[in-house]
Amino acid sequence: MASLNSFGAQSTLEVGGKGYQIFNVGSVEGAKRLPYSLKVLLENLLRTEDGANVTKQHIEALGGWDPGAEPDTEIQFTPARVIMQDFTGVPCVVDLATMREAVVDLGGSPDRINPLAPAELVIDHSVISDVYGTPGAFAKNVEIEYQRNGERYQFLRWGQGAFDEFKVVPPGTGIVHQVNIEYLARVTFTREVDGVLQAYPDTCVGTDSHTTMQNGLGVLGWGVGGIEAEAAMLGQPISMLIPRVVGFKLSGQIPAGVTATDVVLTITQMLRKHGVVGKFVEFYGEGVGSVPLANRATIGNMSPEFGSTAAMFPVDEVTLDYLRLTGRSEEQLALIKAYTQTQGMWHDPEHEPEYSEYLELDLSTVVASIAGPKRPQDRIELSRSKEQFESDLLNYAQAANPAKVKDQQGREFEIDHGAVTLASITSCTNTSNPSVMLAAGVLARNANARGLKAKPWVKTTLAPGSKVVTDYYEKSGLKSHLEDLGFFLVGYGCMTCIGNSGPLNEEISQAVNEHDLAVTAVLSGNRNFEGRINPDIKMNYLASPPLVVAYSLAGSMDFDFENEPLGQDSEGADVFLRDIWPDPVEVQKIADESIDSDMFNSKYATVFDGDEHWNSLPTPTGNTFEWDEKSTYVRKAPYFDGMPLEPAPVSDITGARVLLKLGDSVTTDHISPAGSFKAETPAGQYLVENGIAPKDFNTYGSRRGNHEVMIRGTFANIRIRNQLLAAENDGAGVEGGFTRDFTQPGAPQAYVYDACQNYEAAGIPLVVLGGKEYGSGSSRDWAAKGTRLLGVRAVITESFERIHRSNLIGMGVLPLQFPLGQSADSLGLDGTETFDIIGVTQLNEGVTPKTLTVTATKEDGSVVSFEAVVRIDTPGEADYYRNGGILQYVLRSLV
């Protein structure tokens, strides 16, 4: 649709003999002083101005942005494309397939449900490190992956044929965010609109929170829930407030011996401490030009860990050099440079935009670091890691409790608290960065030369983010050195970082559980939340790839690299980490000699083709999907069952019971875990009843196309602690997916799902009470979907993370906050109360109240009343809530 062009912004850009229509941000007063990221948003509004969703006033508000003001102006952002991975992508396609049927029921055509923006899905979340430490591990893991997930993959192949503008990158290719920056990202997008060739900034939202990796390329976008992504695919703009932008100045140079991982862990700690939730972060200053693109991508990737919406770097020659290396055409590079320079989006270190807040990091002050044992922002200087571990261990275990183990090779050894049972080079964050990947290889080579080996109790895995990594490992000769230490290729996928670490060896697992050992994992990922990495492992640490290798040699987190040797060489001399640490000059030399654009061109030339497994899958056809009632992987979604064309009025919430009372930093992993589960859980029981053996359960993440499994898995993380049960277990509470069922005499302990069935039968609505940073972590739509389908009508917390709050609204769940400075505990609420939430009906009149009155009645009849802050932040969100969710809103608007 043509823009109204109120500002006369349309002009033609000539590049390489071709003319492109562009919308010049300079036509809006005040644009020159805007940060890079807001210029991208401004162009987006100019191009999509229609007088309804996007008005002249919206554009003027963005041009007149006040850096110091609190966000209060809603705008509608229309991303150029959508990217997905399979864990979140399968339920997206399930929803779209279900909507095709629902639109027919409402009198419309199924073809109305079709992506209007390009959507690309990379299958990278399903491969598990079942087999490791052998040359055939990769092939075997891929074979097992297809056996487990063939049904899901057939469904995705159907989607690729049924929907326009939808492409699938098959398994065994790479990790979504690495494939995005190495191949899919355009930086400057081109598209024919009404017969006119337009050029505009590449913008992209994704169903994975680490979509922000592309921010390192200057591509604006962030992680959204699957429900928001579906709406974006169907042409719905994303409602947002014009954000505050934090200017982060980089100066100085990274010292020798310090890695990009250390830099990003430092930045993560700084920004989480500063407070950037809901804000954009933008890097600027002289130091930006010296930050390699791979490091920029590493920093952008960790944006969800520090809480910002985006973490942007502007476009410059470093960007173009990277695009050239990764095989982008010279024609595309010429367009990117001409476009960004014309729009004032090219990095000019002399010009400093205005920012809302300012931070600075002198890169020369960064030191080697790790983060853990359960949050990415909990940075620990490597020199203090042993001391910090011994302090943190007190939260997980008491006195030493060593176990003697004899493994399958007949080796005998002893493990204790802190034993590193998993060392994994994994995750898009670092496997996209040649400097740290090659450093790991050089450290392995140096260790082998001195006769060092990984400890026998360490599971060692290597999961690169693209096949190009394997190419440069082979060309540099470092692949064999990593394999000599046990780091064989296990797959191209997220693997350990998403919880697909696979089982520990049986004898290790048995010893850990019998002796209740607090053992550790070290991974080069971005997530180390409780219960995420492996069910046997209590403490998880993020580290650079070379440090992952180093910890496999040390074998314990209770280790001082400065003063304790990793072992002895053939002469009997002690070998310390400093003796084998890679020389950064040598690492760079190896990179220069081992990596070229031909590698990227050859690997990505066939990116959508797939292997013989993929191509031999039977593929259903037709524009609607034929559901299999016996399927335990893909089921028709229930969200539109019996949905009328006109939404029913929203109502106040009365007589509600508390399903869970939770503390601070409850993640979407706690709410909707992605990993494995046992037969005795509600999800396990459902599968057993449907003829599935426990060995074939797969993971929650792989079952996201089946709402029956996912409802039963909601609030079922093995490490979640429901304070309704705090009186149990000497006040420590009960770990796992349990609650009290107030429909039964004495309110006994029950599985969350079972209690919810009883509440639904009794017609009792539910609320959840939470603390600070509720819903941090992954952009997991099932954390909101499961919450809604369990019967939860409202979530009341001290604060929300951005993505989960919007997902709750997208599912028709009301997000409320305690009054500033108050909490459930300060108000004397223990979760046994009955809740009434009054004033919700104002939304039926088009009014979004700032607060609602919440009354909690205790068992003795006494009452606690407070004014809860309504976190429906924009008129668009109010529309979604009134419709019972964003998909219902979209469906009705299409019909």
TrEMBL record:
E.C. number(s) listed in UniProt: 4.2.1.3
Tell me if Metal-binding is a UniProt keyword of this record.
yes
- InterPro entries, sorted: AcnA_IRP_Swivel, Acnase/IPM_dHydase_lsu_aba_1/3, Acoase/IPM_deHydtase_lsu_aba, Aconitase/3IPM_dehydase_swvl, Aconitase/IRP2, Aconitase_4Fe-4S_BS, Aconitase_4Fe-4S_dom, AconitaseA/IPMdHydase_ssu_swvl
Pathway(s): Carbohydrate metabolism; tricarboxylic acid cycle; isocitrate from oxaloacetate: step 2/2; Organic acid metabolism; propanoate degradation
Ranges for the Aconitase A/isopropylmalate dehydratase small subunit swivel domain?
Answer: 685-819
Looking at the record's lineage, which domain of life comes first? Bacteria
Q: Domain Aconitase/3-isopropylmalate dehydratase large subunit alpha/beta/alpha, which positions?
A: 71-555
Q: Which UniProt keywords apply?
A: 4Fe-4S, Iron, Iron-sulfur, Lyase, Metal-binding, RNA-binding, Tricarboxylic acid cycle
Annotated GO molecular function terms are: 2-methylisocitrate dehydratase activity; 4 iron, 4 sulfur cluster binding; aconitate hydratase activity; metal ion binding; RNA binding
One GO BP: propionate metabolic process, methylcitrate cycle
Q: Name one Pfam family in it.
A: Aconitase
Q: Does the keyword Cytoplasm apply?
A: no
Q: Which reaction(s) does the protein catalyse, per the Swiss-Prot or TrEMBL entry? A: citrate = D-threo-isocitrate; (2S,3R)-3-hydroxybutane-1,2,3-tricarboxylate = 2-methyl-cis-aconitate + H2O
Cofactor(s) in the UniProt record = [4Fe-4S] cluster
- The kind of enzyme this is, by top-level EC class, is lyase
Family statement: Belongs to the aconitase/IPM isomerase family.
Q: What does this protein do?
A: Catalyzes the isomerization of citrate to isocitrate via cis-aconitate.
Provide the assembly information.
Answer: Monomer.
Protein known as: Aconitate hydratase
User: Which gene is the coding source of this polypeptide chain?
Assistant: acnA
